[in-house]
Amino acid sequence: MDPTQFDPEKINEIIERYQDKKWGLIPLLQDVQETIGFIPPESIEPIANALHMHPSQVQGVITFYSGFSLKPKGRYVLKVCRGTACHVKGSRSLLRMIQRDLHLEEGETSPDYQFTLETVACLGACFLAPTMMVNRDYFGKLNPTKVTSVLSEYSKDSKEA
Amino acid sequence: MKNIVLTINGKKISSPPGTSILEAAGKNAIKIPTLCSHADLAPHGACRFCLVEEENTGRLMASCVTPVAQDMIIQTDSPRVTGHRKNIARLMIAEHPESCIVCNKGNRCELRMVAAQLGVAETGLYPMPNYKPFETNNPFIIRDLSKCILCGKCIRGDHELVAVGAIDYNDRGFPSRPATLYGQPLEASNCTFCGTCVSLCPTGALSTHNTFFVGTPQREATSICGFCSAGCSLTMGVASQHTTGETFIDRVVEVSPSSDIGTVNGPTLCVRGHFAHDFLLSPDRLTHPLIKRPSEEGVASLQPCSIDEAIATIASRLADIKRLHGPDSIGFIGSTKCTNEENYLFQKIARVIFNTNNITTSGILNGQALLRELDRKTLDASRVNPLSGLENAQAIVTILADPDHSVPVAGYHIKRGVKKGAPLVAIDPYRTDIAAFGTIWLHPEKSTESQPLPHDIINALAARLIHENGADQAFMDQKTNDPHGWFENIVSVNPDTYAVQAGVSPEKIKKAAEMLKGKKIAVVLPGDLLERKNGKEIFDAAFNLALLTGSIGDTHAGIFILSLENNLAGAMDMGCVPDMLPGRRPIEKPEERKILEDSWQTSLPTNPGMDIHAMIEAAEAGTLKALYIMGENLLRTLPDPDRVRSALEKLDFIVVQEIIRNKTAEIADVILPAAAFAEKQGSFTNMEGRLQSFDAVVPPPGDALADWKLLAMLAEKNGHTEDYTTVENIQREIRQIIPGYSEIGSHRQVWVSQPETKQSETFAFAPLSAARATTTDKDYPFSAFIGNLRWHLGSGTRTSRSGRIKASGKAGEIAISTKDAHALGLNKGSKDDGGAVIRLVSPFGAVSRAYVVDPAVPPGQVFIPQGFSGNDLMQITDFSALKDTGSGWRNVNVRIEKIISSTD
Fold this sequence. Notes:
The complex is a heterodimer.
Chain A lengths: L7 H11 L6 H12 L7 H8 L3 H10 L11 E6 L2 H5 L2 H12 L12 E6 L11 E3 L2 E3 L4 H17 L1
Parallel strand pairs in A: 1-2
Antiparallel strand pairs in A: 1-3, 3-4
Helix pairs in contact in A: 1-2, 1-3, 3-4
Chain B lengths: L3 E5 L2 E5 L5 H7 L23 E4 L4 E4 L10 E3 L3 H17 L14 H9 L15 E2 L5 E4 L8 H9 L5 E4 L6 E4 L15 H5 L5 E3 L10 E6 L8 E10 L5 E10 L13 H5 L14 E5 L5 E5 L2 H19 L4 E4 L6 H14 L5 E2 L7 H11 L9 H4 L3 E5 L8 H12 L4 E4 L5 H5 L2 E3 L11 H14 L5 H7 E2 L4 H6 L3 H8 L3 H11 L4 E6 L8 H14 L9 E5 L5 H6 L6 E2 L3 E2 L3 H11 L11 H10 L4 E5 L3 H4 L3 H9 L3 E6 L4 H4 L3 E4 L8 E4 L4 E5 L12 H11 L9 H11 L11 E3 L11 E2 L17 E6 L15 H5 L6 E3 L1 H7 L12 E5 L4 E8 L7 E5 L25 E8 L6
Parallel strand pairs in B: 1-5, 16-17, 16-26, 18-19, 18-22, 19-20, 21-32, 22-23, 26-27, 27-28, 33-37, 34-36
Antiparallel strand pairs in B: 1-2, 3-4, 3-5, 6-7, 7-10, 8-9, 11-12, 12-13, 14-15, 14-28, 24-25, 29-30, 30-31, 33-38, 34-37, 35-36, 35-38
């Protein structure tokens, strides 16, 4: 799966729904992010034109929110919690382990677009520390074995696909 | 609404609701430090320096974004407040790079000022400079975002004042910075280099790219911009600079918008105003008089002489020619770039001393015709048109106007008006910046049987407005007459018919009409409209639209003309016109002539004089013997330069009074070195009717003198004893003679007074035009339009001598439409393939230039910008088009020839 091969028509459909509605910038961007997996930079200008904004403004909003990304992300986005509770429970070691296993630094995406590795300040699940998320699923009370099995589960998944 | 009463620093203050605490304090002479607030920008609350304490609640709040509330007790300088301010200053300085000490902003840096006032010296913090790349690649603006304090003034200026939107905040937290789209360098973005951000920046994050000066100017003085007709107020930074030998002279080293209140430009300028004034320092400046004399080998050449000798030669040669060949054998060409006083003196010399009405300016190429037509149509009721009217307009219609390139400051007013909610209907076959910005863009979309013209679109709009009951019937009944039955004619046909004829979908016209319905509209026209094909018909249609909507005579509506030359209106008011005396008095009216004859105590020639076209023809025929040219580069400005050159070479005597040694000066017999606007005193009248006086900022170079001084010397030499030793004396005479100028020189900025229109007189609808475009010529299938790009003004004599404009690498590429480029096999822009060149051939000549494929250009048309590469494009224009206004020298039919370069 190559997320850079998206159907531009899908973006046009979204833009059309919000034509002339300046208030709709964030929902529009959310829709694009959700549908395509990222916000292709070349869609900034059509979005700005439809909403009568400057393209630089649209880009400003995209870069402000970490929920929006101008770069394609992996099929599975790993968010390792680096909050205080998780830190105390050894999340740094877990992060290093994941980095080593996936050959990824923070913020990077694997060349096959299988994984993106991110960190977050707190997932709000401190009672399960150390925690991480893969897309929308939480994994708590992690230890190296558990992390390895989670990673292999998603890697295996990819081979099946 | 009742005023709000509050206490600031123990002082009881009453303020209208909605005022911010900062404003209320400022009005009561209580100063609160700020870095991000600016009177012309919306409050932002970014820098937090303006924190104040409210005693009732103990809250600290940013005074710029907090409105006053009843019974507030505000402390602006309590120990708690100053403590916080000091911390902010410490944090900002800790983030600042060490290059701060060599920063050109020096003691003008507002951060430095605020820190110094707070007594912050050492921060006591670990320095954490936030290094960003230093961007110096463009010749105009240096971006050193390491020094950015994120006040957002550049971004807000860009969005709120000039509405370009080149930059916005990107990212969040520590990496946050103003950035262009895709983080490109400015020159690759849609930045217009107006420099507004530079003049707003409180620190050294944005500065002008100055190759000839480093440091802080020693003093500052105000002046009025000498380029387009907006007449922006400038602050010029002056430094004493080492020139040749041991002499130091004051030179203009920096230009920024003046901080005066109520100027036309406020804190904005354009790329020309901000950066092109370095032409003042050009090595081509004339510094001493030159006279043509045979050298020892017998070859005549221009050699230095004294001012006295030059003036004496001019006086005696012109007197001889007048005696031998009669007064009308001498022609005078004044300047739309010279001051009112100078043009007044110039035409007086022509008329009184040499008894001829052969006095004109290059205004005939650049919009004078439109001003005259506007006078005629509006019965002189449109002399005063403040641009602020555009900003507060109910609706705006631009017709072929491209303010972003012609009069950028007017463009800012339009865009601000749109941001305030006025719908903008842009009518233009080209997708100009303003068309892209507009609420709706009307242009021929479908090909019709005959080539649709802009006035078809205007008529379609008018017809639709009438159909939708969107016309101002009361105004039409009281204020208009319709001698040609325009109204009857336009309603006799179904409105959709016009839309179809215009090549625009009826739905789109309907949509535009709905936007304009019941509103008074501001119609924006290019100053050169009558120098374009069918300009007359377009103006007629536009004027009818204004009458239909009752827009004439309203402050926020009416007709706005974007004139290119900064004193176009002034030169005309002063009488540098062959058939008009000062005050736009028609020469053929004996009663008008009598007023001036009495005042000047002379008798005036009664026949209208020759215009430029007639002068050149007379020179060819040998009836014109001498020409006195003040501030005009005819060989660069006029169509068919070869023909003009051979005509001028036939003359017995040419005087060129100029600031720059240019092509025309080269063929002169005597050259008088003149002072540019920044080097003299005088006044200009801008496109709004704003009469702006200014003083010299720096002395003229070398022996150059202000034009009025040179003219006064000439008058004196001819035995005229009027005392023209000061500008005030000339102004006193103008005040008495020209009714609208009774206030000239009294203040820095006054308005010309509007001639009183008779209440009973009504405005006449122009006839419904049926003019069609001529069928396309097989040999010359493309229609070329000669227009302007923001980098150059007019023919570019001055702007092409700006080092920074030159360094921008703009080559004036010919723009062709995507469709035509494809058909001709020209699919690369000049940037990609290293300057592929094409040749445009017209019936009059040819020009070769690099080209770009520009989707904004409609098929069948090509756009060539003026001012570039010696303005060589005048070779393809038709000289005879100057004969009648409305014949359109700016449009030429051409064919495109591909030149295969040897590298291919």
